[in-house]
Write a structure and sequence with these properties.
The protein has about 800 residues and is α+β, with helices and mostly antiparallel strands. The chain is built from 27 helices and 32 strands. A hairpin with a 6-residue loop joins strand 11 and strand 12.
Length: about 800
């Protein structure tokens, strides 16, 4: 009978659904294991990246279940976001309908792949039963002072007509549509993630199950630096400019100050002067430039003199104050002290604008620095010069002494600075969770009471990107009453960044039907943290950082015990075709539906797991898919041949073992050992599948032999099906039933290998003469060294190479090799 994958896959998917085999409940008798793939945006169709992600997660879930764990493996939908709204504008269809239709379609595709999800736990972030609790969590952050509103210069995408977080701007462009991002000042809601910067950084050390590259990316994004915030008095006004530096050892080398165009002191310094018009025009021009454009290495550094001076607090020198494009208000204090002799950017800037340069560090070894010979800054270690009482000190040693003096005199203060900025969550779009705040003329901003949640997202709105929220035009949503005084009030019309929804979904999965809180405390504490999280490395900063922040906040307010959301993280590589990421524009997209229709879900899964280790990029190969399909057909025929052998009943069924029997047993138990180690220790699914293929080859050789022991073959066949089950769940269910088993193969315990069976009766020894291979011989596995040497010397082939020559020495590598050295 041919391998009819359509019939087999439909049969078992129906049975799994009817028997509710993937439903999960708390079981205190078993250790828990929570495996989770990053939930997808419901774009409408699965792509090969999805197939890879979910197939990896499914193998882990099925394997852990067979190892005796109580496995939680849920799925849901990251369903709010800009694409749905853009689709609504383009196709004249409501975002809700577009999203729910896509969810329905993608769910069927996932079921078709045979993924072992507990669909009873399905959540969608756009459902009011979910975003009610997103709003509730917002209010918890608001109560703790971690949610606040302020006017800020924000990243504005003119095409999407919305604000973007810093992390959503890639090389000055919107990560979604590629438009050049502009700066705009708006009143925005923020989460105070900076309050958690140090914990987010320090707790990376706890994440031994995360890839080092991801931890480095997070560490760099947090960007911790220790230094001193120094006060420079403005000569004209008597006010102070505060500048943070990690190089306060170079304070005597400061020859100018630079302010960001947005710095509030800039206009004060130029007001009423001949510099005012030029500086105002420069500020306006800088509002159009992105942070990336302004700070890129390739961008020309532009500076304008304000006409004002500051006083260096350490030596009393007047230093000019400039405004420049490369200094940002969002980083540090928006002011930078210029030390051109010891900072390359400052050096180039000083040369361009003919600003003074003073050497304050001389190298301890090598040539002495001379100003007229310097072609670049010297940022290295050395001895302080031109630095008053600190002359002659090692510059690193002097840092502490200078900081102490500054603090004593009140001119500076030690400080830890972070590159991390607060999380901007406001979006001027419709398709998102409404922010549960109302504005009352009498009471000001008022949080919506918990009993009034959710603030329902209305459906009767228009979708036109105008730069303001469409909710502003929905009177029934906008106008409400103040929860405090009962007077008229207006609702907040910004919606939340979709990353807020995905920062806690893994908690909701633990008890998705809880109606009086976001999750049941007992259940969340039983399942959390997630034991294995799987997703793309592109989420290393955004989603993973936000999820860690949320988890720590919820721990601090006593809602959960976990302090980190994900114990282990696997970042799978991309699926490429012709060396490039699959995309419609490149015309290199392979449809999962087409592959499943032609070859079946098991083939699609097997290929994508076999073609490459999960953390590396995978190059698509039509030949590879064909090869996986042929392999499953070979396995299916092997089981049919095995059943034919059983019917003939002419095979041995005793306990005596021939050499062939022992070799098949050894191969069977070696495969169990190899697959287990690859699954347990490394997730090397490709080498695990390769070992299973070798077992199939061995079984085919054995069944074609003369003297088959049916017990030995049955052991091999049953283990083969069980080992293959996590990778190809449908065909293995079918074959398990074919050999007379009544329970699901996926409910079988994972096999243990027999150490005794791994031992060989005979070993193949390579024989060399003067380092060249001259023969290969079989010897007893327990042969002594002396007997091995004697056996080698007795071989006719070896005699022909050593006759008449003197044996200088004999080198024996136990169980592998004998090398006879002659002359």
């Amino acid at each position: 009978m041919a391998y009819n994958f359509h019939k087999i896959e439909e049969k078992w998917q129906k049975k799994w659904k009817n028997d509710d085999v993937y439903k999960t409940v708390i079981d205190s008798e078993k250790p828990k294991y929570y495996v989770l793939e990053m939930f997808p945006y419901p774009s409408g169709k699965l792509h090969m990246g999805h197939v890879r992600n979910y197939s990896i997660g499914d193998v882990v879930a099925r394997y852990k279940k067979m190892r005796g764990f109580n496995v939680l493996h849920p799925m849901g939908w990251d369903a709010f976001g800009l694409p749905a709204e853009n689709a609504a504008i383009k196709n004249q269809i409501h975002p809700a309908k577009w999203t729910w239709d896509n969810i329905k379609n993608m769910k069927q595709q996932l079921i078709g792949l045979g993924i072992s999800y507990d669909w009873d736990r399905e959540v969608a972030s756009c459902h009011e039963n979910y975003y009610k609790w997103t709003q509730w969590l917002f209010l918890k952050l608001y109560e703790k002072g971690l949610a606040y509103k302020k006017e800020a210069a924000v990243n504005w995408c003119p095409s999407c007509a919305t604000v973007l977080a810093n992390e959503q701007v890639i090389n000055g462009e919107c990560e979604r549509c590629g438009s050049v991002v502009e700066k705009k000042r708006l009143n925005q809601w923020f989460f105070k993630i900076t309050d958690y910067a140090e914990r987010l950084l320090q707790d990376l050390e706890k994440l031994s199950g995360w890839p080092e590259k991801v931890k480095i990316m997070q560490k760099n994004w947090i960007g911790r630096s220790e230094g001193v915030e120094i006060k420079f008095k403005v000569e004209k006004t008597g006010e102070f400019i505060r500048a943070f530096t990690t190089r306060h050892d170079t304070i005597y080398g400061v020859t100018y100050m630079v302010l960001a165009p947005e710095h509030p002191m800039v206009l004060k310094l130029v007001e009423g002067t001949d510099k005012e018009e030029e500086i105002r025009a420069f500020i306006k021009e800088m509002e159009k430039a992105s942070e990336i454009e302004r700070t890129a290495e390739s961008t020309e550094k532009i500076g304008l003199f304000t006409g004002a001076y500051a006083i260096n607090p350490m030596n009393g020198e007047r230093i000019p104050i400039l405004v420049a494009n490369y200094v940002l208000m969002e980083y540090g204090t928006g002011a930078v002290m210029g030390v051109p002799a010891h900072d390359q950017r400052d050096f180039e800037f000083a040369k361009k604008y003919n600003l003074p340069i003073r050497i304050v560090i001389q190298p301890k070894e090598g040539e002495k620095l001379e100003l007229d010979k310097m072609t670049e800054a010297y940022p290295g270690r050395g001895v302080l010069v031109n630095s008053g009482p600190y002359n002659g000190m090692d510059n690193h040693d002097a840092q502490n002494a200078i900081a102490e003096y500054m603090e004593k005199e009140g001119i500076g203060k030690r400080k830890v600075n972070y590159r991390l900025r607060d999380w901007l969550i406001s979006r001027q779009r419709y398709w998102g969770a409404p922010i549960p705040i109302v504005y009352c003329e009498k009471c000001g901003p008022v949080p919506v009471p918990e009993e009034d949640l959710p603030v329902i997202l209305p459906e009767n709105v228009e979708f036109n990107p105008k730069g303001v929220s469409p909710l502003l035009e929905c009177e029934e949503f906008l106008n409400t009453t103040c929860p405090k005084c009962g007077g008229p009030a207006k609702r907040e019309t910004d919606t939340m960044d979709t990353f807020v929804c995905s920062s806690w979904y893994f908690l909701r999965f633990t008890s998705p039907h809880t109606t009086d809180r976001p999750f049941n405390k007992d259940e969340v504490n039983y399942w959390m943290p997630v034991d294995q999280y799987i997703g793309g490395v592109e989420h290393a900063i955004l989603h993973l950082m936000y999820a860690r922040f949320f988890t720590k906040v919820l721990h601090d307010i006593g809602l959960i015990e976990a302090e980190e959301p994900f114990t282990n993280l696997l970042t799978q590589g991309m699926v490429l075709k012709d060396g490039a990421k699959m995309s419609k524009s490149k015309g290199n997209v392979v449809s999962p539906e087409d592959i499943m229709e032609r070859y079946g879900a098991d083939t699609a899964r097997l290929f994508i797991l076999f073609a490459s280790p999960p953390e590396r990029d995978l190059e698509w190969s039509d030949q590879g898919v064909e090869g996986s399909f042929r392999f499953l057909n070979r396995v299916y025929r092997l089981i049919e041949d095995y059943l034919d052998l059983l019917k003939k009943n002419r095979e041995r069924n005793d306990d005596s073992l021939t050499g062939e029997d022992k070799e098949l047993r050894r191969l069977t138990h070696y495969t169990i050992k190899k697959v287990t180690e690859d699954m347990e220790e490394r997730f090397n699914f490709n080498t695990a599948i390769s070992a299973i293929m070798e077992l199939v080859n061995g079984l085919n050789r054995y069944k074609d032999g003369e003297n088959i022991n049916i017990k030995v073959m049955t052991e091999a066949v049953e283990n083969l099906i069980v080992l293959l089950a996590p990778f190809a769940p449908h065909i293995t269910e079918e074959m398990w039933e074919m050999i007379g088993k009544t329970d699901s193969v996926h409910r079988q315990p994972w096999p243990e290998y027999d150490k005794e069976a791994l031992k060989k009766d005979e070993l193949e020894i390579v024989v060399q003469v003067n380092g060249k291979v001259r023969d290969k011989i079989l010897v007893p596995a327990d042969i002594t060294k002396a007997d091995l040497e004697q056996t080698v010397l007795e071989q006719d082939k070896i005699k022909s190479y050593i006759n008449g020559k003197k044996i200088v020495k004999t080198i024996v590598v136990p169980k592998k090799l004998v090398n006879i050295v002659v002359k």
